[in-house]
Amino acid sequence: MRVDNDFMVTIQNAEVLNSFVKAEREIERHDSILCSVSGGADSDIVVDMLTKLDDDRKVVYVWFDTGMEYSATKEQLDYLESRYGITIRREKAIKPIPSSCREFGQPFLSKYVSEMIERLQRHDFKWEDEAYSALLPKYPNAKSALKWWCSWHDEDLAEHFPSQSGKSSKWSISRNRYLREFMIENPPQFKVSAKCCSYAKKDLSFKIEREINADLVVTGIRKAEGGARAGAYTTCTSFDAKRGIDTFRPLFWYTHSDKEYYEQRFDIQHSRCYTEYGLKRTGCVGYPFGRKICDELSVIKHYEPQLYAACSNVFKGSYLYTEQYRKYVKEQKARR
Ligand code: SF4
C-alpha cells in the first residue's frame, strides 16, 4: 500500500498520518527489517502498520519467548499471524528468566540499580555507611558501583568525579529515596541482577539481527509510556553505533488519544490480557519493577495461576525486599 493522497484523506489524525509517512520512508530506505513483536497493545499497532506498508516483504517479525509468558499473549501471536498472513518467529531466550534469576540473581527496583547492586555483591561489599574515599581502598575494583553508592554525598563525590556529582542525577542512589539507608540497615540476603534482560531479550535480539543481516529494528516504544525504555530515546529514529543498525519507533510521539484513534480507525484487537484480564500493560510478566505489581500479581493469580506460581517463585526475594523497602520509605516519610 502507498501512503498517497487517497490514503491520506482517510486519516483524520496528524500524528497517525505522520507515523505512516515515516514508516513508509523507513521501509523504503532499508533492506532487512526486524520487527520486535511483544503481543502488547503498542506492538499490535506496529504490526498493523508495517503489514499495510511492507509490499516487498522486507520485515521479519520476531517474538522473544522469555520463558515466562501469558498464554493470552501466545494466542495473540496466532491471531496476528492469521489476520495479517504473516509468520512471527518464536525465539526462545538464550537463558529463560527463571534460569537467569536462579544463576545470576533477581532484578530489584530498576535495571540500573540491579546492576550496581550486583557489582557491589560481586566484591563482597558490606554495605558500609562510609564515603567514597574511605571505601575505594577496600574495594578498588568496584569504582563505578561505589560512585553510585556514595553519590548521596555531593562534596565527597565532587572531589573524585567533578563533572558527574549531584543527588538528582539518574545515576545517583538518591534517585530512590532512602535506598541507601534502607540497604545499610537491611543488606540484601539474595543475589541481585538484571541479567535476565540480556539473556531473554537484548542479546537474543542482537543474535537475530546478525542472523538476518538487519539494517533496521522496529519497536513499539512510545515516549508517553515513560520509564527507562522510552527515556533511552529522544526521537523516533536513531542509529545505534554499537550495533551498527538503525532503530525506528513509529509510535514514539503517539499520545493516548492518537493510539485510540488508530485502534478505532483500523479495528485493532488486543490480547485477552487487556480485554479480559484488564491489564494496562503486558511487558515482562510479574516483573518486580512495576509500581502496581501487587495488582498485577492478583490478576495473574486469577487468570493464569501457573504463571503466578512461577513469578512468586522466580522473583520471591525481590518481591519481599521491595515490599520491605516501600514500607521503610513510608515510615521514614511519616517521621519527617
Ligand atoms: S524487564 Fe524482565 S527481563 Fe528485564 S530485568 Fe526486568 S524481569 Fe528481567
The low-confidence runs, each spanning 5 or more residues with pLDDT under 50, are none
The count of strands amounts to 6
- Assign the CATH topology of the largest domain: Rossmann fold
Instruction: Give the number of domains.
Output: 2
Sketch the major β-sheet. 6 strands, mixed
Return the structural class. Answer: alpha/beta
Give the CATH architecture of the largest domain: 3-Layer(aba) Sandwich
Alpha plus pi helix count:
17
Q: Choose one word for the global shape.
A: globular
- Please, what is the CATH homologous superfamily of the largest domain? HUPs
Helix content: 40-55%
Assigned CATH class of the largest domain: Alpha Beta
What is the CA-CA span between the terminal residues? 61 Å
Could you report the average pLDDT, rounded to the nearest whole number? 91
Instruction: List SSEs in N-to-C order.
Output: HHEHEHEHHHHHHHEHEEHHHHH
* Beta content: 5-15%
Radius of gyration: 22 Å
Biggest sheet, spatial arrangement of strands: 3-2-1-4-6-5
Could you give the topology of this structure?
Blueprint: H1 5-8, H2 14-29, E1 33-36, H3 41-53, E2 59-65, H4 71-84, E3 88-92, H5 97-103, H6 111-122, H7 132-135, H8 143-150, H9 154-160, H10 179-185, H11 195-211, E4 216-218, H12 227-231, E5 237-240, E6 245-248, H13 256-265, H14 272-275, H15 293-303, H16 305-314, H17 316-335
Parallel strand pairs: 1-2, 1-4, 2-3, 4-6
Antiparallel strand pairs: 5-6
Helix pairs in contact: 5-11, 6-8, 15-16
Bound molecules: iron/sulfur cluster.
Iron/sulfur cluster (SF4) binds next to helix 11.
